[in-house]
Amino acid sequence: MPTEGVSRGAPEENPVPGHRGAGQFDIREQLEIIAQPRLTGSEAASRITQHVRATLSGFGYDVRDHAFRFNPWPGRLGVSAAGACQLSAIFLGGGLLLEGHARAALAVLAVVPLLVGLTAVALWRWLDSAGWAPHAGLNLLALPAGRPRFLIVAHRDSKSQPIPLVVRGPAIVVALLSWALLLAQAALSLARPMPAALPLGTAAVGAVAGLLLLWCRVGNDSPGALDNASGVVALLAIARDQQAEGDVALLVTDAEEFGLAGSRAIARGLPVVTGAINLDGIDDAGPFYLLARSGGRRQPDTAPRLAAARRRAGAALNLEVRQRNTPFGILLDHIPLAARGIAALSIMRGTFRSLRRVHRPGDSLAVLSGQGIDPVRRLVRHALDLLRTQELPARTD
After folding, report:
1. N or C: which end of the chain has fewer CB within 10 A?
2. 268 DSSP 8-state letter
3. Among the residues of the chain, which ranges form H helices?
4. Separation between Cα atoms, residue 368 and residue 350, nearest integer Å
5. Domain-located, residue 84
6. Is residue 13 part of a domain?
7. Number of folded domains in the chain?
């Protein structure tokens, strides 16, 4: 079984508070234990890792540690750096264009973002190849008694940012559009001068978007109830529900909030499975979303059948299930698994209001009861039962 880099977790010398063994499982109690600020590397993150390990071991799984190292700076500074690059290009290029230097403005708007972006990517790759990874992370892989056919995934870390996702996402889109529009205005100005109000308005909108992105520093002030204590508790509920089947493995990843560092590190060392389900953000209300492809990647041939089983399960349980491609700019732990050739999907539940809480101090149990977790458990159970009758071919590579 290919599980490179995975070692058996050390047994706990002291019982973990809140862990009551395989016989009892209270969703609200589990949420109260996990929903606290737990940025990767923090003391709270370590305590919650112990709790999750003990809970899965109590259910009878063979829990193994997968230690890895990663560079946190792209995750910490990536959005802020993009904001700084946007502001530099807007101010320099927009200023030159307003002064009537269209050719110089065009060069600045075209070259500055490209040069900064290529430099950042090259530096990141060089640091990775040089082995400069100062932070330690720890994934937990829980194996069943039999051969794993399916994998359930959830990330346990949380982070906070001053700008909520519902604002940060549109800010990224507006920043890109304003830059492209200002670039087009500079190109058109080579043939015919245009009123100054047009580039001035474009530059002003782009500057606001850039300032919002510049402010997106990473902190440890969010309890992360929705993102992603809800997913971890759903994973534990499914683990308890599926322990007798002997074919479901569980992966609890670390450092998801730092560019999917945990899932990227373990993707090549995972056991051969037919399909994977990532749980990331299970709110109390709203439709369920199946998020599949990302970045134009083609999923394995079994992926449509996995999605169809989940849709059929939703219909059978009278649950609203919608299938979507992963939105641009959204990073989910199924993406590295799909890149490895595993048929992988993410399940989320929520509404537009849910996005207002993500990565904010308001993402707490004051606004999350956990009543969406049991429907997810039933949805996954029904889908897995359907898949077991389909005799899906397992990967062999």
Report:
1. C
2. G
3. 27-34, 43-58, 73-98, 102-129, 165-189, 197-214, 230-242, 261-266, 303-316, 334-339, 352-357, 373-390
4. 11
5. yes
6. no
7. 2
pLDDT per residue as tens digits for the range 265-320: 999 899 889 899 999 999 999 999 999 865 555 555 566 777 888 888 988 999 99
Tens digits of per-residue pLDDT, 197-239? 888 999 999 999 999 999 888 999 999 999 999 999 999 999 9
- Give domain status of residue 376, yes or no: yes
Name all contacts of 106-109 with Cβ < 8 Å and 24+ positions apart. Answer: 106/183, 106/186, 106/187, 106/190, 109/179, 109/182, 109/183, 109/186
In a domain, 1, yes or no: no
SS3 352: helix
Beta pairing class for 150-155 and 248-253: parallel
One-letter amino acid of 20:
R
Return the residue matching tokens 């359907």: 386
Q: Do the Cβ atoms of 297 and 382 come closer than 8 Å?
A: no
Tell me how far apart the alpha carbons of residues 259 and 72 are, in angstroms, rounded to a whole number. Answer: 8
Q: Are residues 184 and 286 in the same domain?
A: no
- Which of 178, 198, 214 is where one domain is finished? 214
Q: Give the phi and the psi of residue 282 in degrees, each rounded to 5.
A: -115, 95
Please give the model's pTM, rounded to 2 decimal places: 0.86
Q: How far apart are CA 95 and CA 105, in angstroms?
A: 8
What is the CATH classification number for the domain harbouring 32?
3.40.630.10
* Domain identity same for 35 and 141: yes
- What are the backbone angles phi and psi of residue 210, rounded to the nearest 5°? -65, -40
Query: The domain containing residue 42 runs over which residues?
Result: 24-70+134-160+219-390
